[in-house]
């Protein structure tokens, strides 16, 4: 019986038959890995089809080529232990590397799972610098949620490193479809990873396999019977072994032949036949340890079966002939989980329940994950099911951070087993709804939540259920549903202050996105007040951050900064959940709007490091968005596009659709400025797909971006029609004018070109009102002067706007004001002054990569002024095909730095480094990090 990947030493004496094409493919892949390339592959097929055997071949090949190997078999109970699958594989990496030495500590992934996830990337980059690495996960459909999330992060992050991922999994069936591992495999296929599908063996391969098992050639009686296993190698092997064990397959004159008529007819029967050949104590040992469902130690087996070590060793040795293999950690495991299941199925129900009760106690004493203990308790009868439910409920918030899906599945099974008349059932449903919501399984959460609400709940339980639904809907961008759920909960009287504070906090943010600003500000203030009173400082911070958003939307920029600083100060003082709300996100945004770019850069950098420390994956898209906004304000369009694209990737990886919308809006605006209208259209299609699913966005995020695209495509009337209701709302919601000062004049121009002078005047008045409200903002003053200058054709106002934008370092609004001034001043002012405005504007848009503006200025003014060349890239001898930002990253790779080290050196996010490297590899037509380093050494030596 073949051993499992990562579980002891496989039987390599027997040939792998019928898989020559697959072995040739793996050989090519591992040659590529040894040469420094990374990648990802998945092997799929029915249970017992030979996936594990093929993995062993890959491991053997990799070892022979000098590739380090980290391997682990995932077990069903892995879903209960955060990061155990991936951390377990790397912990046993061969040859050992100092990069993973920290994993030898006492389960660091359990003590701080998200912190461990952050360290894993750095460790993998470090290990890949030493030698290429193959990571093998067998039975990947059972991997835990955090490992699945980590793999989704790490595969693209390590694409430039010699890290090869190899997964084996069975196709989903029944209730397996929703496991994190299956979802990961489906994601890989969507990302273009074509699975290597293992089919059944043909007759000649089955004949060869049968001969290998028997140790002699076989005749047609054996081949015909083996054919009943439908080409499945494991079942064929087990059947042949059963025939040998029962003396129904004999070898005479060197030929194996089947005798007798009483033949085993199924896989379970085959396993039972082999099991019956063991002594009674060895068979009882196997039946007992099958209950563990994972590798087990000698001590655990001895405690379960009440055998002292001296008696246990001979029984284990007997069982290892056909059933057990030595685990890489020194324990034992079944050679194949199908065999374990078959052995488990020979246990009577009452005996199973008793054994599960004992294994639950053993697992608890061994400090196994709470969900694993609860899983055994749930299978140990009605009393144990009650204990399981109590355990999971008591740890619901902690579990929701690392394995909400596994916890929710357990609770759903408990619900099915619980007494319908149990008075505690409604509260159990409420907790399950919260876990489903945390796992982004919104449809299930809403369906179950509706059932619970119809059945009737006490006010506090109902409020908690609605809070879970509201927070999940907010994460998914369903703001209207968020407001509805939180509003229903807040109608209950006598709620705990902490619960009421959390409801107001999430409601404040949703209301802000729906444009109900006064209500949003009121909810944010209540969240702050109640959170401080009730000690729920995370809600107080989040509510105050919501007030900062409201103040920004209303154009009260000083108030926006004040609220953001207050939220940050509270988070720093209280720590804990308050700190994990990361209010520096909104502080960085408020500073950017008020032109404090350097301070905003420092705040965002510090906040990102803090977020990485806490493992707050939810915050990553927001950091990307505000970093994008800062880069956009500084005119660094190429970097802004990469940053926004990286943020969008992260947002969609976490199903954070609410955060995908503003990132798409930024990508759309940047694409228009860069003259890439096809890309802008693609982004708009993406926006519409999300909107069709109920995801909402504020108008300044996507409506304005779509209008800019229509205007760029020569449809100003269509652009105006889209913004028709936007103009009247500008005085009360001037967020667009505050965030993008150039938009004021653009709004005037769109209305004017559409023949709507009233709306053009309304945009001017809104800009002037914003400037009056914020006397300290030179950008607001510049926007007002620019809008008035375009409206009244006032050259002095346009020059004033240019001076103000130049003073605060906003190049794109400056270029727009200079262009308008040049167009107006041509023929009416000193030619030298007008020429200097044109040349300055052209230089700015060229340096920023605003190709659409450059083309427009060249078309209109190119015959009158000297057009400057493209930026000095034309004279760049070092990698001229790369952008300046890409060149910086390439040079850091040439120094031997990892992506994380590059991110720290260049003060950008690691996701942005990953994106730059993908672009670099595509432009240079290379696939390996070593190739890039060689190119840098050759072309940039001077």
TrEMBL record:
Gene3D superfamilies: P-loop containing nucleotide triphosphate hydrolases, Tetratricopeptide repeat domain, Winged helix-like DNA-binding domain superfamily/Winged helix DNA-binding domain. The keyword ATP-binding applies. Keywords: ATP-binding, Nucleotide-binding. It holds the Pfam family AAA_16. The keyword Cell division does not apply. InterPro entries: AAA_16, P-loop_NTPase, Sig_transdc_resp-reg_C-effctor, TPR-like_helical_dom_sf, Tscrpt_reg_LuxR_C, WH-like_DNA-bd_sf. Residues 875-940 form the HTH luxR-type domain. This is Helix-turn-helix transcriptional regulator.
């Amino acid at each position: 019986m073949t051993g499992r990947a990562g579980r002891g030493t496989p039987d390599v004496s027997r040939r792998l038959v019928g898989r020559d094409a697959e072995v040739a493919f793996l050989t090519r892949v591992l040659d590529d890995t040894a040469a420094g390339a990374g990648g990802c592959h998945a092997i799929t097929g029915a249970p017992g089809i030979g996936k594990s055997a093929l993995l062993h071949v890959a491991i053997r090949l990799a070892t022979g080529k000098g590739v380090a190997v980290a391997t682990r078999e995932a077990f069903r109970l892995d879903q209960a232990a955060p990061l155990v699958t991936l951390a377990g594989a790397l912990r046993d990496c061969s040859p050992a590397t100092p990069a993973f030495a920290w994993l030898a500590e006492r389960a660091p992934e359990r003590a701080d799972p998200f912190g461990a996830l952050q360290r894993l990337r750095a460790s993998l980059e470090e290990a890949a610098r030493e030698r290429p690495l193959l990571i093998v996960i067998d039975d990947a459909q059972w991997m835990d949620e955090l490992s699945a999330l980590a793999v989704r992060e790490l595969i693209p992050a390590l694409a430039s490193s010699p890290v090869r991922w190899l997964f084996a999994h069975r196709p989903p069936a029944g209730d397996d479809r929703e496991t994190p591992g299956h979802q990961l495999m489906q994601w890989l296929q969507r990302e273009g990873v074509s699975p290597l599908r293992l089919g059944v063996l043909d007759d000649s391969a089955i004949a060869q396999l049968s001969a290998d098992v028997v140790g002699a050639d076989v005749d047609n009686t054996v081949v015909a019977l083996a054919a009943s296993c439908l080409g499945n190698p494991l079942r064929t092997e087990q059947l042949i072994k059963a025939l040998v064990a029962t003396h129904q397959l004999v070898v005479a004159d060197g030929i194996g032949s089947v005798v007798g008529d009483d033949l085993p007819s199924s896989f379970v029967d085959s396993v039972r036949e082999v099991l019956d050949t063991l002594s009674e104590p060895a068979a009882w040992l196997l039946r007992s340890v099958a209950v563990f469902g994972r590798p087990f130690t000698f001590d655990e087996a001895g405690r379960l079966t009440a055998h002292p070590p001296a008696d246990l060793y001979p029984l284990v040795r007997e069982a290892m002939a056909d059933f057990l293999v030595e685990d890489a950690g020194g324990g034992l495991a079944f050679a194949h989980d199908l065999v374990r299941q078959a052995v488990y199925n020979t246990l009577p129900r009452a005996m199973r329940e008793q054994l599960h009760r004992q294994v639950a106690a053993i697992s608890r004493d061994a400090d196994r994950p709470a969900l694993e203990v609860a899983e055994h308790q749930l299978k140990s009868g009605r009393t144990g099911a009650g204990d399981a439910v109590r355990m999971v409920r008591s740890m619901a918030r902690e579990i929701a951070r690392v394995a909400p899906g596994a916890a929710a599945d357990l609770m759903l099974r408990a619900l099915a087993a619980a007494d319908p008349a149990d008075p505690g059932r409604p509260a159990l449903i409420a907790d399950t709804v919260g876990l489903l919501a945390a796992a982004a399984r919104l449809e299930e959460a809403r369906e179950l939540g509706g059932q619970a609400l119809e059945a009737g709940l006490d006010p506090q339980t109902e409020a908690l259920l609605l809070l879970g639904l509201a927070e999940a809907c907010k994460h998914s961008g369903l703001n209207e549903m968020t407001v509805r759920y939180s509003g229903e909960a807040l109608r209950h009287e006598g709620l705990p202050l902490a619960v009421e504070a959390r409801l107001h906090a999430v409601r404040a943010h949703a209301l802000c996105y729906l444009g109900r600003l006064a209500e949003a500000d009121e909810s944010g203030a209540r969240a702050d007040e109640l959170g401080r009173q009730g000690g729920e400082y995370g809600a107080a911070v989040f509510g105050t951050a919501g007030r900062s958003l409201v103040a920004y939307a209303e154009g009260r920029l000083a108030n926006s900064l004040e609220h953001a600083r207050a939220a940050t100060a509270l988070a720093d003082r209280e720590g804990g959940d308050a700190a994990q709300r990361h209010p520096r996100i909104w502080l960085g945004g408020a500073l950017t709007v008020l032109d404090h770019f350097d301070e905003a850069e420092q705040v965002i950098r510090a906040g990102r490091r803090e977020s990485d420390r806490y493992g707050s994956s939810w915050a990553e898209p927001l950091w990307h968005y505000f970093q994008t906004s800062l880069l956009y304000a500084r005119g660094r369009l190429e970097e802004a596009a990469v940053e926004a694209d990286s943020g969008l990737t992260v947002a969609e990886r976490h199903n954070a659709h609410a955060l995908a919308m503003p990132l798409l809006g930024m990508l759309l605006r940047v694409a228009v400025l860069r003259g890439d209208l096809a890309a802008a259209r693609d982004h708009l299609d993406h926006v519409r797909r999300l909107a069709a699913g109920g995801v909402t966005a504020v108008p300044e995020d996507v409506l304005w971006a779509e209008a800019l695209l229509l205007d760029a495509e020569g449809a100003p009337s269509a652009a105006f029609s889209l913004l028709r209701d936007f103009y009247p709302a500008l005085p009360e919601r001037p967020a667009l004018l505050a965030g993008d000062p150039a938009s004021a004049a653009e709004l005037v121009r769109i209305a004017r070109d559409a023949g709507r002078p009233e709306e053009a005047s309304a945009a001017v008045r809104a800009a002037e009102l914003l400037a009056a409200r914020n006397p300290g903002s030179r950008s607001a003053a510049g926007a007002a002067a620019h809008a008035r200058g375009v409206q009244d054709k006032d050259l002095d106002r346009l020059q004033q706007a240019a001076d103000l934008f130049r003073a605060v370092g906003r190049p794109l609004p400056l270029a727009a004001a200079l262009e308008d001034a040049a167009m107006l001043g041509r023929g009416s002012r000193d030619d030298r002054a007008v020429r200097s405005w044109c040349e300055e504007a052209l230089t700015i848009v060229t340096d920023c990569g605003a190709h659409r503006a450059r083309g427009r200025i060249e078309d209109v003014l190119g015959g009158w002024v000297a057009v400057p060349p493209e930026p000095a890239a034309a004279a760049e001898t070092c990698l001229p095909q790369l952008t300046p930002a890409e060149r910086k990253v390439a040079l850091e790779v040439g120094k031997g730095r990892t992506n994380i080290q590059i991110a720290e050196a260049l003060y950008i996010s690691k996701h942005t480094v990953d994106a730059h490297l993908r672009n670099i590899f595509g432009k240079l037509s290379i696939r390996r990090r070593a190739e890039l380093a060689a190119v840098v050494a050759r072309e940039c030596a001077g």
